[in-house]
């Protein structure tokens, strides 16, 4: 069985993929509409618009799936299950401290 962190990462990938497909589908659909307005007889503009609409549908479906998965996951394991806090590295002092040097009597 996967650890809680890996399960949450898998669920988050669904969200990332859904967002990517939704945004790309919208951009692609707008460009397809420009192509259709330019020449409505070209089938490529209509084909691209259909594929873009499919991407929008799949992206929306992935975002809904993400929402349902997060709700079920958090109901089963708790709200903070699988969340990982970033590692806090100690801050280095950027200024150099002078090393006391011995002075030789001349």
Radius of gyration: 27 Å
Query: Number of DSSP strands?
Result: 0
Helix vs. strand class: mainly alpha
**Large-scale geometry:** elongated
Please, could you describe this protein's structure?
By secondary structure, this protein is mainly alpha-helical. The protein has a domain at 4-77: Helix Hairpins. 66% of the residues lie in helices and 0% in strands. It has helices spanning 4-38, 43-77. Helix 1 (4-38) packs antiparallel against helix 2. The longest helix has 35 residues, at 4-38. It is elongated, with a radius of gyration of 27 Å. The chain starts with a helix and ends in a 29-residue tail after the last helix. The model has no long low-confidence stretch (mean pLDDT 87).
Primary descriptors:
106 residues; Helix Hairpins; mainly alpha
Fold blueprint:
Blueprint: H1 4-38, H2 43-77
Helix pairs in contact: 1-2
Short structural description:
The protein is about 65% helix and about 0% strand. It has about 110 residues and is mainly alpha-helical.
